[in-house]
């Protein structure tokens, strides 16, 4: 792939990951509200995402997305190494062998049967498979 093709593919992946994150966030929000915590607007939700332990499990994915955006926005030519790094980071996030992301995987396990989570996950996984070509 050329630099432009790689960059465009990574942009599509970043968008797909944002949709996936949004779907996971909706599940976390429903879990929080089912325990009696009303979320009365986007500012309250934003503060909860930043500060409440109920949303902490999403932070590794948020960090990965921020790093991916930095890579895409860099002026340097993108290489196969950048693509390998993205695939590797996503692999670690979902790998039971890496205990650093156990909280993320536990939250994902609670959310993975949600239809929107499934649909958005399929999209980003398809894009990752496209990067392997």
From TrEMBL:
Protein known as: Uncharacterized protein
Organism: Deinococcus yavapaiensis KR-236
């Amino acid at each position: 792939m050329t630099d432009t093709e790689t960059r465009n593919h990574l942009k599509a992946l970043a968008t797909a990951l944002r949709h996936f994150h949004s779907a996971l966030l909706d599940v976390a929000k429903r879990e929080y509200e089912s325990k009696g915590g009303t979320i009365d607007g986007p500012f309250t939700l934003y503060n909860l995402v930043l500060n409440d332990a109920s949303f902490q499990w999403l932070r590794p994915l948020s960090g990965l997305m921020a790093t991916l955006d930095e890579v895409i926005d860099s002026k340097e030519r993108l290489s196969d190494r950048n693509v390998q790094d993205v695939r590797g980071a996503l692999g670690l996030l979902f790998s039971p062998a890496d205990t650093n992301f156990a909280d993320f995987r536990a939250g994902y396990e609670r959310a993975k049967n949600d239809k929107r989570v499934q649909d958005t996950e399929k999209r980003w996984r398809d894009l990752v498979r496209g990067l392997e070509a």
